[in-house]
Each structure stands twice: as structure tokens, then as C-alpha cells.
Amino acid sequence: MRIYYIRVNQEDYRKLISGQNSSLSASLLRSFLGAAAGGYSAIIRLRNFLYSKKWLKTHLANAIVFSVGNITAGGTGKTPLVIWLCNKITQNYGCAILTRGYKAQNYGDEPAILADSCPDAKVIVNPDRVAAAAEAVNRFGAKVLIMDDGFQHRRLGRDLDIITIDSTSPFGYDKMLPAGLLREPIAALKRAGAAVITRCDQTEEAELSQIEKKLQSINPDMIIARAIHAPVCAKSIDSRQIRLEELRGKKVFAFCGIGNPEAFLNTIKRLGAELVGSKTYNDHHNYTANDIAQISQQAERLKTDLILTTEKDRTKIILNSQQMPLAYLAVELKFIAGEDKITRLIEDTLAGKIPGN
Hints:
By secondary structure, the protein is of the alpha/beta class. The protein contains eleven helices and twelve strands. The protein has helices at 10-18, 24-52, 78-89, 109-117, 129-138, 205-218, 244-247, 261-270, 289-301, 311-317, 339-350, and strands at residues 64-69, 95-99, 122-125, 144-148, 160-166, 194-198, 223-236, 241-242, 251-256, 274-280, 306-310, 326-337. Strands 1, 2, 3, 4, 5, 6, 7, 8, 9, 10, 11 and 12 form a twelve-stranded mixed sheet that branches. Helix 4 (109-117) packs across helix 10. The chain is globular.
């Protein structure tokens, strides 16, 4: 059987499902996507029902398992949270990160970032999380496993699910894929022990309060925290550190291939740089030499001082960009509320459950 794929521009797709594109053809397409979403929703609901009844088997690892995931497609800030969680745990325990990678990439963007940021942890790339867990425990002696993007991967049991909610697009336009961005019905949040609302510095307080109220109405027992992706510095391709203060007033051309490009561009503006141009690609974009040449040409035409991208994109372009005035923006997760509650929940999950202790 031959399968055909239709490649859709990410920005156009968001305009379509959000209703920003109000043309007649867009309205007709939204109706079609709504019908497709109904079928997808039925499949996901059935799957979740079968797991809840234990008719689909959940495999338990001989280790504590934390899952970091989300309920929507696109970038919600999972990777910075995985890094924060891993570095907190590896202070006392042997830790491994389980990640599926992306498509055919064996060691793509997120795994490379995780390996660089968590040098004391083993990063195991395998779409089969059960097999990855067994390797982490049996081969490397890991006592704690962190499953990256694991909320929907229910074959592997977990002790705690932590969800990231992007405050700029929290509930995927309240529609299931492909009519919206929801991977599951929002009622699935009842499975989560904690939620971290990310990019809170890009959302008004009233909206943040509404997000928290909605989460609490779905799962009153859920621990809720707020966080931002705090820029630390920019780093040039030759690892030279550029202080954030040095970006102020600079003419910057930015590009990225991430789930939420607007959040990245807004961050650059808030740092005081002059964003003279930008180019966005679909999430997990694989850069070609032609892409890099076009970026360089656009930046040169606009007389930019610096070309800026994300750390995730940097992992895929370094070999093609040695001659560019290129840097990436290094960010880290910074809690602005609820960190103590999240930490306590993690400690309670670990207490008395480490095999062999």
C-alpha cells in the first residue's frame, strides 16, 4: 500500500485551524478537518478506555519513571523541563532519559540538546519506550527514568506525569487533531499529577488565571506551577558567549523550525534587539545547504549584525554555517511560581521507591 503525505506549512495551518483564515475555501477545509478529528477522537478515546480497563497492557520498569509530556501538538517547552528535572534528580540518583527521536533521525535536535545539557545522564533514543527502559535499567543501572514526550505513550507505566501547558496556546483551540492541536481530549489531564504553565511572561495575568481555573476544574488534585523560558545568553557558532545586554540595539535576522516560532521571535524583541527580518520553518525542519544560503543572503541584504536561531535548530545546521555571523539563544526553565510544590511532589515520588535502596 502506498501512502501519500501532504506537506502543510505550519504557519498557514495555524491560521486555518484558529479561524484567522476566514476564506470560503478555509471554511470548507475546516469542516473536513472537523470530520477527520471526530474519527481521530474516537480512536484515542477507545485507546484510553482500553488502558483504563487494563485490557491494553502497561509494562512496569524496575525504576522510578517520570513522564514529561503535553496534550497539544507543537512546542510547549518540554525539553527545558526535562533538563531541569534531570539535573535535579541526578544530584542523588543514576538517571536516564528516554526519548523517541524524530522520524528517521537517530540523534536529532532534542536528544542532542538533552545529551549536552545533562552530561551525567544516559540519553536513550528508541521509539519503543519499554525496550528503552529495559536497556536503561539492565545495561546502565539507572534507578530513575525520565520519559520525554511520554504522556501519550502509555505502554510504559509511570509514577508521575508532568504536563507542560504553553500559555500562548494552552488547549490547542479546543479541538482535536487535525481540526485543532489537541492530541487527546482535555479530560485526559486527569491522569497528570502536575502541570507547568510555560511562557508565562508572554501572557496576561487574567489569561493565566483562566488557564489555571480550567486545569483545576478538570483535575482538582493537580499541582500547578508557572514558568518562563529565561534567556541566559547567546552563543556564537564557535562557542563565544554573547551577553544579553550586547543584543540590545543590534540588527538581528532570526530563523527557526520549532513548534511555536512566535514565542522565539517575541523573546528576541523583548531583549531589545531590532528584529529586521525572520524566516520560519516547520517544526523539526532539516536544513539544507540551500536553506542556509538563502538565510545568509537575506540577512546580508538587510545588513544585519547577527543571525539568531534556537538551540534546537543549531544542532542541525552547524556543519553548514561556519561562515555565517550565527548564534543561538540559550534558554533555561525558570519557575516564577509553584517550584516548591513541584519539587516536593518529585521528592515524595522518589521517597522509598528507589529499587535497591
